[in-house]
Amino acid sequence: MIFTRTKALKGTVTVPGDKSISHRSIMFGALAKGTTRVTNFLRGADCLSTIDCFRKMGIEIEETPREILVHGKGLHGLSAPSSVLDVGNSGTTTRLICGILSGQSFDSQLDGDDSIRTRPMKRIIDPLSQMGAHIESLKDNGCAPLKISGSPLHGIHYTSPVASAQVKSCLLLAGLYADSPVSVTEPSLSRNHSEIMLRHFGADLKTEGTTVTIQPGPDLHAQEIRVPGDISSAAYFIAAGLIVPGSEILIQHVGINPTRDGLLRVCREMGADLTLLNEHWDNGEPYADILVKSSSLHGTEVGGAVIPTLIDELPVVAALACFADGTTVIRDAQELKVKESNRIDVMAENLRAMGADITATDDGMVIRGGRPLHGAVIDSHLDHRIAMTFAVTALAADGETRILGADCVNISYPGFYEDLRSLNAN
Ligand code: S3P
Question: In terms of domains, do 238 and 301 share one?
Answer without folding.
Answer: yes
